[in-house]
């Protein structure tokens, strides 16, 4: 039994990791990222629920579910980062710690990627660390949840 559970949520096109613009996003597939997250979860004593959807409404429905079932959220909202007030609102509504992850350094890229609606509701933002960013986010989430004494 883990001391806390974390939803790791991935937005649109991240199912194509490994084949999608590998010079930007690297060679690892989403299954590789899921495996890394589960390994980190075992080490950190966190139960990991790893999901991906291309649909905004599905991501929002899963966030609503997480209100009852998860202690924290690690989210790579992908392109919805830059467009979705609805996902930011859902994250605010569920009132759980949120860490935003981007594989690439969004600030080094096109200017439309520089603004995130999610950052304003996140405890932390990790970008430009490649897929390692997910592991770093889980390490930080474990600290946050321990300090909140989640049981
Ligand atoms: C991304 C960056 C976003 O701008 C982009 O739309 C993505 C992936 C990243 O992980 O670097 O799909 O979130």
From TrEMBL:
Gene: aroQ
PROSITE patterns: DEHYDROQUINASE_II
Biological process annotations from GO: amino acid biosynthetic process; aromatic amino acid family biosynthetic process; chorismate biosynthetic process; quinate catabolic process
Subunit structure: Homododecamer.
Enzyme Commission designation: 4.2.1.10
Catalytic activity field: 3-dehydroquinate = 3-dehydroshikimate + H2O
Protein name as catalogued: 3-dehydroquinate dehydratase
Active site: 25 (proton acceptor), 102 (proton donor)
């Amino acid at each position: 039994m883990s001391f806390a559970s974390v939803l790791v949520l991935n937005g649109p096109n991240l199912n194509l990791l490994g084949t999608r613009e590998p010079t930007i996003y690297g060679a690892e597939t989403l299954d590789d990222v899921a495996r890394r997250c589960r390994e980190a979860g075992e080490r950190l004593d966190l139960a990991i629920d790893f999901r991906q959807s291309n649909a905004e409404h599905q991501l929002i429905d899963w966030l609503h579910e997480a209100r009852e079932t998860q202690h924290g959220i690690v989210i790579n909202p992908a392109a919805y980062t830059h467009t979705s007030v609805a996902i930011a609102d859902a994250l605010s509504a569920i009132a759980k710690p949120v860490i935003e992850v981007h594989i690439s350094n969004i600030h080094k890229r096109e200017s439309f990627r520089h603004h995130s609606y999610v950052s304003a509701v996140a405890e932390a933002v990790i970008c430009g660390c490649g897929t390692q960013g997910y592991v770093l986010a889980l390490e930080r989430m474990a600290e946050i949840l321990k300090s909140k004494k989640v049981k």
